[in-house]
Amino acid sequence: MRSLLWAAAVCLLLAPGDTSDDEPPIDKEALRKAAHEMFMHGYNSYMKYAWPHDELMPLSCKGRIRGVTPSRGDVDDAMGNFSLTLVDTLDTLLVVGEYDEFEEAVKRVVENVRFDTDVVVSVFETNIRVVGGLIGGHMMALVLKSKFPSRLPWYDHQLLDMAKDVADRLLPAFNTTSGLPYSRINLKRGMLPYLKEQRDTCTACGGTMILEMSVISRLTGNPIYEEKARKAMDFLWERRHRGTDLMGTVLNVNSGDWVRRDSGIGAGIDSYYEYCLKAYILLGEDHFLDRFNTHYSAITRYVSKGYVFVDVHMHKPTVVSRGFMDALLAFWPGLLVLKGDLQPAIEMHEMLFQVVKRHKFLPEAFTHDLQVHWAQHPLRPEFIESTYLLYRATKDEHYLRVAKQVLDSLNENDVRSMSHEDRMDSFVLSETFKYLYLIFAENSDLIFDLDNYVLSTEAHFLPLNLASSQPDQLPRRLFIEPEHIEDEERSNRFQSACPNIPGGLSRSADALNAFGSSLRTRLPRRLFIEPEHIEDEERTNRFQSATRVQTNLGYIAKSTECAAGTNDRLRAWAFSASNTDHIKHLSKMGIEMEQHDGQVYLRYSEKAKDGDPSASCVLDAQGSLADLNASHSALSQMISLLLMIMLLWMVVMCSTFVLVTLAAIARRVLRARGSPAESQEKKNE
């Protein structure tokens, strides 16, 4: 029955909204207009000050030109002097209803953009932004022509032809032993010798090609693009760790050996997981879903720590490889929506929203206790993408309020100092504002059906009618509403295809909304609850029910003891010895911290009631709380010192013995050499 799922792509039920009595109603129309106005301000600024260059420098009011403006390193590999922002933004123009400007933009791209340029670009970025942007523009051009026959009368698949041209220029990058593409290529001269020496690529770079390349193949009839992308996906699947089913971050394109074995859901891996599931949605092939489910189980087991996520070593998942999360993992709740697993999506989104509320926006990186790790924020779309998909699935007005807060904060960039940066990536217009507009838009505001498309990782529209076969048991739609289930037979098929939605359709939708509301209201409106916040027995019980949240975010309840002989354990991945808030909390609980021998020592200074000495706890690299008595620690240090002295004495004695032995041997050799001379002298006499 699982094969029925792909016909609908995603089995989600749109539920009635849940409006709280103490919240003012959301004016969706006003917010949609505000999102439209902000998008057009950014777009018009790009066209006025930057076009035909790739990006706008909003503070300098000029275009960013590859090879002319100061280099930003690998970030500039997304640019190829091909009007990147305009190409990436084509389909957004039609989404927001700017039909005249869309026609003009298509004409500008067709007449002015060329790809026969001697410039080295990222294969990954060029695929998702340029190939994807041209495909999305082509699909929207067909929509506009079908809706208004008088528009674009001259258009004859030129954008699709341009997408094919770019794909042809990327194909030489796939000529590797493994089939994984090299990370960079020269658009005019192909794989130059020095580019072939750069053999390392990220998992996401090789695993985020299948959607765009499959669409090119199926729209043009040439299978080569899909074949190359499939081979890369198949190889990555074979390179997973067979014991954990986790993926590393960087590997060699020829040998397939892992260069970086860090495993998580953020930068370097993120869109590989996304395309495993979306390839199933687009192409309807069960093995893509099998792969995603296998990875999902591994992520749930090793990477997910309640509401937060850690990076671990793929071969040793009990060892955490870094102590912060990056903003790119905010796509995960939205992906879980597409899978139909809404409860963990709601939970993780709420954690991310706590970060947004604290810092006005999602920092580029933040620690597990939700402090800023890297304050830069280039207006990334992942969080608002997940917010949009959760609203589509639940119709809970909470997500409209979240989107409103994001909209209100978009004029602020660096989330610590609230300063601005002279940078506007193409995804700001192609993704961020697209999702902001869509979440406030009604179906009547659009001239096409959103559910006939799946959005790529760059938010470009890819049609769902390209699957090899199309069974007619269920509507071919991304989201399925109750009215699409026309009879009992189809209703039963829908339920059997979606095991994550138990019970009746409307009942399960109500339960999801109730779960989200309960998650936000059952505790005081604080993510971190300290002992002084617990005022009575009732709230104490409520606090204890949230212990999972507290522990996972690295806070230690006052009741947590680390006396010798206890079995309590504290996971070290959430604790940062350089975090001043952590140290303050430890101090409030009477815990002193020391660092030496590569370890963090926590000492509880208050004497135990039975007169036992103070206890010391060591947080080791494996994330465990080791129990050490303070006297044991001093004794171990003394023993170590004695052992070092003994070792030094042995080295000195051995060295002396060797020197004496060598001297004796040398003396004998010299004496032996002198004997013949003395004999000859005596003979002469």
From TrEMBL:
So where does this one cross the membrane? 638-665
Listed binding positions for Ca(2+) are 457
A Pfam family that this protein carries is: Glyco_hydro_47
Select a single GO molecular function from the record's annotations and give it: calcium ion binding
* Major localization class: endoplasmic reticulum
User: What residues form the catalytic site here?
Assistant: 125 (proton donor), 270, 364 (proton donor), 382
**Which InterPro entries does the UniProt record give?**
6hp_glycosidase-like_sf, EDEM1/2/3, Glyco_hydro_47, Seven-hairpin_glycosidases
> Where in the cell does this protein reside?
Endoplasmic reticulum
Q: Name one GO biological process term.
A: endoplasmic reticulum mannose trimming
Q: What class of enzyme is it?
A: hydrolase
Q: Which cofactor does it need?
A: Ca(2+)
What range does the record give for the signal peptide?
1-19
Gene Ontology cellular component terms for the protein in this record: endoplasmic reticulum quality control compartment; membrane
Keywords of the record = Calcium, Endoplasmic reticulum, Glycoprotein, Glycosidase, Hydrolase, Membrane, Metal-binding, Signal, Transmembrane, Transmembrane helix
Q: Which Gene3D superfamilies match?
A: 1.50.10.10
- Quote the EC number: 3.2.1.-
Which family does this protein fall into? Belongs to the glycosyl hydrolase 47 family.
Q: Can you say what this protein is called?
A: alpha-1,2-Mannosidase
Whose protein is this, by species?
Steinernema glaseri
